[in-house]
Amino acid sequence: MKMDLASLGILPPTQDPADCEPTADEIPRILLDRLGRVRAELARRDITAAVLFDPAHVRYATGSRNMQVYSSRNPARYAFVPAEGPVVLFEFSGCEHLASHLPTVDEIRPAKAISYYFNEKNTEAVTRAWADEISELARHCGGGERIALESATPQAAFELQRRGYQVLDAQEPLEQARAYKVPNEIKMVRSSLRAVEDGVRKLENAIAPGVSENAAWAKLHEHIIATDADFVETRLMNAGPRTNPWFQESSERPMGDGELVALDTDVVGRYGYYADFSRTFLCGDGEASPAQRDLYKLAHEQIRTNMENLKPGVSFKEYAERAWQIPPAYRARRYFALAHGVGMNGEYPYIVHREDIDDKGYDGIIAPGMTLCVESFIGHEDGGEGVKLEEQLYVRDDGRVELLSDYPFDPRLIG
């Protein structure tokens, strides 16, 4: 069963292959436009260059994919991206050929892995050599004293400072660049979602009494690798009493007949784009209990109301004030965000509940080009089962909002 989108003023998701897969000619332009957004954000802040270690940021700026999970914990490949001048990809030893076709990369060099794991007593010397190389590149890109850095070691920042640079956090310009999708980038997002939706169908078909949470969850992993996705970032699938509170990871526990089974996809999928939606199913062939349907009704109502409020020009705080009112008994276990940005993974902005604005929130404007996920978790503070729902949406350049995720709700629960 699907939501009545017309009454919410939301465009339905598309399954048209022309809208869900970029062409061979479009891909290079998307990569160059993304790089252009990074350069523009650096220039806006008078930053000479960014040195990117986060594999999602390296991929966004250059299109390069290599050992994404490994690279998230090892500073062994990185990209030098200047506001003006040549982009240099520093690739893991022996992997230089992987990015040789990319229009965004002007030069590929072997990386200097700046960590104790690689260098032991030579770490300090290698880091000095790394900083010398970065400094030399910066001098050939207009000079300047401001370099943005992320996900590196503290010693790397100290060495750049010793060379006279002001070191800034690269996350700010990168998050702002990624938050607004370039032309045809949304086709990559839709491609990732369509593949993950097929994987969730296989997962849902595997849900049965006596089957472990892990065994069903593995069906999604198998499918996304087969469709050239990267990895699942979390393992959020649980059943029965493990659905409340949320954030309990999948386990070897067998699912029980008549239990709720909740999941959040969190897949870094095709082209490196996040497919992020949540569903709750009923295990077995029986009917849902009145209590289960009541929980589902509340979660569905929260999603529906907050999707309807998602409009360009609305501030984050306005969105929070207009949000669906969570009944008191469910507020303590509310999901931490009402909505969040999404691109290659969860990204700017995070829009928190009205109760949390003063403590955790910040303001901004929902704007065309953003893709956002609207979240709900409904679980009673005294325990029992819980329901997790989430939809992924796109604020289009024409100001209309389009639902991106395309997966039905369980008809036995929605009633």
Map the helices and strands.
Blueprint: E1 10-11, H1 26-44, E2 49-52, H2 55-62, H3 68-71, E3 78-82, E4 88-91, E5 107-110, H4 116-119, H5 123-139, E6 146-149, H6 154-162, E7 166-169, H7 171-178, H8 185-206, H9 213-226, E8 231-232, E9 237-239, E10 260-264, E11 267-268, E12 274-275, E13 278-282, H10 290-308, H11 316-322, H12 328-331, E14 339-342, E15 346-351, H13 357-360, E16 371-379, E17 386-395, E18 401-403, H14 411-414
Parallel strand pairs: 1-18, 2-6, 4-5, 6-7
Antiparallel strand pairs: 2-3, 3-4, 8-11, 9-10, 10-13, 11-12, 14-15, 14-16, 16-17, 17-18
Helix pairs in contact: 1-7, 5-6, 8-9
Describe this structure in words.
There is one protein chain. By secondary structure, this protein is α+β, with helices and mostly antiparallel strands. It has helices at residues 26-44, 55-62, 68-71, 116-119, 123-139, 154-162, 171-178, 185-206, 213-226, 290-308, 316-322, 328-331, 357-360, 411-414; strands spanning 10-11, 49-52, 78-82, 88-91, 107-110, 146-149, 166-169, 231-232, 237-239, 260-264, 267-268, 274-275, 278-282, 339-342, 346-351, 371-379, 386-395, 401-403. The strands form four sheets. It has a six-stranded mixed beta sheet with strand order 1-18-17-16-14-15. It has a six-stranded mixed beta sheet with strand order 5-4-3-2-6-7, with helices on both faces. A three-stranded antiparallel beta sheet has the order 8-11-12. β6, α6 and β7 form a beta-alpha-beta unit. α1 (26-44) crosses α7 (171-178) and α5 (123-139) crosses α6 (154-162). The radius of gyration is 23 Å and the shape is globular. The relative contact order is 0.13.
